[in-house]
Write a structure and sequence with these properties.
Radius of gyration: 57 Å
Number of helices: 7
Distance between the termini: 97 Å
Shape: elongated
Order of helices and strands: HHHHHHH
């Protein structure tokens, strides 16, 4: 939204400008923060004070650098919620240390410090609003509750699905048991039928075997006589055609021999020519 693009740079301007001024001349702000730092060291536990630098100027410079970085991020719209929280955290000690109007005796100075104090409180309120601004998106709390509801729904679905699965498994088990019982009954019937049919088939095989044996005895001499006659014819044909086949083979052998001799002579002449060329 265009309003956010305008409001964020305006809100971060005072922190960027104040941080640059503190880096250039940290002495005045360090002098003002000295008493507050001493009271904090006396109040806070040793585990905290040992990690905090004791030099006021160093603390002022660190605070200024954080304000410049977080202010630039807020102005550019980079992680605006986190940068707003960081700026709010740096604003609290700065306000308590630099604008403690309740410790000022001069009425005019007290009024001026009181005004600065309330101005910083106003900026703190704006930073808190910017820190919780989700830009129309759901907050983390809403997302967490929604995720919890989804998880509960998934668990409920899983439970119901498991119930349906158990029912389906029971149905399948019953059907398998029924099928097994029917298979047992059918197997007995099939065995009885196989015994009955086996006897009939064995009797038929004996009868067919006897018939085939008798046919083989009757047709055996006839087949043997045919084999002898065919063998004699083939032998006579081989005697008659053997001379012709031998003459043809001899002629073909002489032709192939002459061709091979000519090919060898040509190859030898070619090899001699190539050898002469290589010697030159």
């Amino acid at each position: 939204m265009i309003v956010r693009r305008i409001a964020r740079p305006l809100l971060s301007t005072v922190f960027i400008a104040g941080g640059i001024d503190s880096l250039r001349s940290p002495a005045p702000k360090a002098q003002a923060a000295g008493p507050f730092l001493e009271k904090s060291v006396e109040t806070l536990p040793a585990a905290v004070t040992q990690r905090v630098p004791s030099d006021p100027e160093t603390l002022v410079k660190i605070n200024a650098a954080v304000q410049i970085g977080a202010g630039a991020m807020l102005a550019l719209g980079k992680a605006p919620r986190a940068s707003s929280l960081v700026l709010a955290g740096t604003l609290v000690p700065t306000t308590l240390a630099g604008h403690d109007f309740w410790n000022v005796d001069d009425p005019q100075q007290r009024a001026m410090q009181r005004m600065q104090f309330f101005k910083n409180m106003t900026m703190l309120g704006g930073l808190l609003i910017a820190a919780v601004d989700t830009e129309g998106k759901p907050s983390l709390g809403w997302r967490g509750r929604r995720a919890a509801r989804k998880a509960q729904a998934k668990v409920a679905d899983a439970v119901s699905t498991n119930g349906e699965t158990d029912h389906a498994l029971a149905v399948v088990s019953d059907r398998a048991r029924t099928a097994a019982e029917q298979a047992g009954e059918r197997s007995g019937e099939l065995l009885d039928a196989a015994r009955q049919r086996g006897a009939v088939l064995a009797h038929l095989a004996r009868e067919r075997g006897t018939e085939l044996t008798e046919v083989a005895r009757e047709r055996g001499p006839v087949l043997a006589e045919l084999a002898k006659e065919r063998g004699t014819e083939f032998a006579q044909l081989a005697r008659e055609r053997g001379t012709e086949w031998a003459a043809t083979a001899s002629e073909q052998g002489e032709v192939l021999s002459r061709r091979a001799r000519k090919q060898a002579e040509r190859a030898l002449a070619t090899a001699r020519a190539k050898a002469a060329e290589l010697q030159d």
